[in-house]
Specification:
Blueprint lengths: L1 E8 L5 E7 L1 E3 L6 E2 L5 H8 L16 E2 L8 E5 L1 H9 L6 E5 L2 E5 L3 E2 L14 E5 L5 E5 L13 E5 L11 E8 L7 E5 L7 E8 L7 E5 L9 E8 L3 E5 L6 E9 L4 E5 L3 E11 L4 E3 L6 E11 L7 E5 L2 E10 L3 E5 L2 E3 L3 E6 L35 E2 L14 H8 L5 E4 L3 E3 L4 E5 L3 E10 L8 E6 L3 E8 L8 E3 L4 E8 L4 E2 L5 E7 L6 E4 L2 E9 L6 E4 L2 E10 L5 E4 L3 E10 L12
Parallel strand pairs: 5-7, 6-8, 7-10, 8-11, 9-12, 10-13, 11-13, 12-14, 13-15, 14-16, 15-17, 16-18, 17-19, 18-20, 19-21, 20-22, 21-23, 22-24, 23-25, 24-26, 29-30, 30-33, 31-33, 32-34, 33-35, 34-36, 35-37, 37-39, 38-40, 39-41, 40-42, 41-43, 42-44, 43-45
Antiparallel strand pairs: 1-2, 2-3, 3-4, 25-28, 26-27
Length: 587
């Protein structure tokens, strides 16, 4: 029984709800069962003090850790409850959701192993908080197994090698390793082809611990995207190693490390918008020429006794552009080369190969930040569920008309609950829709459909399509035929043919071995872009294409730029696993 009480929601204006017995009402006293509010009811009890408020409808297939017994009160040990939620659906394309609260843990939270050898181990699991500052996973002080730096242990572990950890993600939460846990690692993160860490803080209450983020515990980690992440404390803020499959970082803040801010032993890493405030070097980039780093737009601030140190120590290959340093003796120490600073417009540590004698620096195309649209609160701004309009998941029957009806409903957010949907025709993205969201849903397109989603004129200047998977089809999944801005984010086995004038943004997207991408005169910005087909991978036909972190597989032409187009690729791994179609390349 709930105590009779009023609550005000202020994230989308004032909205009163009345709790009485096991019912909830709005101010007109239209009662509905409290269970239909699910995770949103938890949000009411705990509140949110920042702008983030990631809430899902209760019929989206999202697993709320509260339903597994987690309390989030900062006192109860929630380890077993959170682990039970993680274990519920191995490789289930499920979101494990934490409402705002402090979740005390005493052991490592591990992605589910499933049944080894069946392909359902350590992948397609998403840990999603309601807000970065409101959700705290906190390790108990002086926790057993976390006190020895020579035998470190992670608070969160997302799986070992090999490169099969598809779709793993962590979003909108904080990991706190507590005090007296000098052997703690915040997160050991492994994702493959498509996986991301977004809006995450990792901190140590007493600044002790081995590493905030560890990408050096297994081979074949990546490709993946880490964006909007802060690490405070530890010996190393971020550790990377091994040689494949490349990792992309953007909007990273590092503070109060005791050895290095960012330590790259041998990986291909791409970093943009890095801010470091430290008494030690901000970056150490590898040994023996096998570490490859592209660093753009960095602000590296030395404090304390850094006047005799370099901000960046390079032992591998380094492209550094638009770097600002303060408090360090030198900006870059690279072999026998020293760049004093305090600013560096562009530095390349290795020999440069040029296609044209006039090319003296990188192309330096203008860069735009990826736009977003408001996250609608599903109570105050209801979402359109494609199932409500007739789509039936997992039956293999065409859902095109139902999906189109959901888009034409007038709602701004259209969502696919967890499950498999069938799309036999082209859906027009129009009217009020500004976000199409899969709660890690699977949308299957036959090879006869071209495209699955076609963005046409509508009321929102920006449309976001995210968190969907598709099958191994050959035709484009998405076409932007409008002047609107299109954002494709956190998506697997999708491709695009862009025909309209609108800008295109791509983040953490992988296409399958039968799909290529075509851009026709658009401005395109891609972050962590994984294109894996044989033959020509990407065509830039007369546009401006900027790629930060490109990973490819299989043979053929990686990018064909024609008709006055301009292409800039900054960082990445060309991983050729097959010959080309014309026989001119082997693997």
């Amino acid at each position: 029984m709930y105590k009779r009480q009023s609550w005000d929601i202020t994230d989308n204006g004032s909205y009163s709800l009345l709790l009485q017995s096991n019912q909830v009402s709005d101010t007109s006293r239209n009662f509905i069962p409290a269970r239909t509010l699910g995770s949103f009811l938890v949000n009411l009890n705990l509140g949110s003090t920042n702008e983030e408020n990631i809430v899902f409808p209760t019929d989206a297939g999202v697993l709320n850790v509260r339903n597994f017994g987690a309390k989030g009160d900062g006192v109860t040990d929630d380890t077993a409850a959170i682990q039970a939620a993680l274990n519920a659906y191995p490789n289930g394309q499920r979101i494990i959701y934490l409402p705002n609260g402090t979740y005390l843990v005493s052991k490592t939270l591990s992605w589910p192993a499933g049944t080894p050898g069946t392909g359902n181990d350590y992948k397609n699991t998403i840990l999603q908080g309601q807000s970065q500052n409101g959700v705290i996973i906190r390790l108990k002080d002086e926790a057993s197994g976390f006190t020895d730096p020579n035998n470190p242990q992670a608070v969160i572990f997302t799986g070992p090698a090999p490169a099969q950890r598809f779709g793993n993600s962590i979003r909108n939460l904080t990991v706190d390793t507590g005090s007296k846990n000098s052997g703690a690692i915040g997160i050991q993160f492994n994702a493959s082809n498509q996986g991301s860490m977004r809006q995450v803080t990792v901190r140590s209450a007493d600044r002790q611990g081995v590493a905030g983020l560890d990408f050096d515990f297994a081979d074949e980690i990546g490709p993946l995207l880490v964006k909007g992440v802060t690490v405070n404390g530890f010996q190393y803020g971020i550790m990377t190693g091994y040689t494949v499959n490349s990792q992309t970082f953007e909007n990273i803040t590092l503070q109060n490390q005791s050895v290095y801010g960012f330590w790259n032993y041998s990986q291909v890493v791409n970093i943009r918008n890095l801010t470091s405030t430290n008494t030690v070097p901000a970056i150490y980039n590898g040994v023996g020429g096998i570490s490859h780093m592209t660093l753009l737009n960095a602000s590296l601030n030395g404090t304390g006794n850094t006047t005799n140190q370099a901000a960046i120590i390079n032992g591998g290959t380094l492209l550094a552009r638009d770097i600002t340093t303060t408090g360090y003796q030198t900006a870059i120490a690279s072999g026998t080369t020293t760049i004093i600073g305090p600013t560096v417009s562009e530095f390349v540590s290795a020999n440069v190969s040029r296609l044209a004698s006039t090319a003296t620096t990188t192309l330096n195309l203008p860069v735009k930040e990826t736009p977003d649209v408001p996250w609608d609160n599903p109570i105050t701004t209801p979402w359109a569920n494609v199932v409500t309009y007739g789509a039936i998941p997992n039956d293999g029957i065409d859902d095109t008309s139902a999906i189109q009806a959901a888009i034409d409903s007038g709602r701004t957010t259209v969502y696919f609950p967890n499950g498999y949907f069938n799309l036999q025709g082209t859906v027009l993205v129009r009217n009020n829709v500004r976000r199409i969201l899969g709660t890690e849903a699977y949308i299957d397109l036959p090879n006869t459909v071209n495209p699955g989603f076609k963005v046409v004129d509508g009321n929102s200047p920006t449309v976001v399509i995210e968190r969907i998977q598709s099958g191994f089809n050959t035709t484009p999944t998405i076409e932007n035929a409008s002047s609107r801005t299109l954002v494709i984010r956190d998506a697997t086995n999708v491709s695009g043919n862009m025909t309209g004038a609108g800008d295109v943004f791509i983040e953490n997207v992988v296409s399958n071995p039968f799909q290529s991408w075509t851009f026709n005169g658009q401005n395109v910005w891609a972050r962590q872009f994984n294109v894996e087909n044989t033959g020509t991978h990407i065509v830039n036909n007369g546009g401006n294409l900027w790629i930060f972190g490109l990973k490819t597989e299989r043979g053929g032409t990686l990018i064909d730029t024609r008709n006055g187009g301009r292409t800039e690729v900054l960082g990445g791994l060309a991983y050729t696993t097959s010959g080309s179609l014309n026989g001119t390349q082997n693997d």
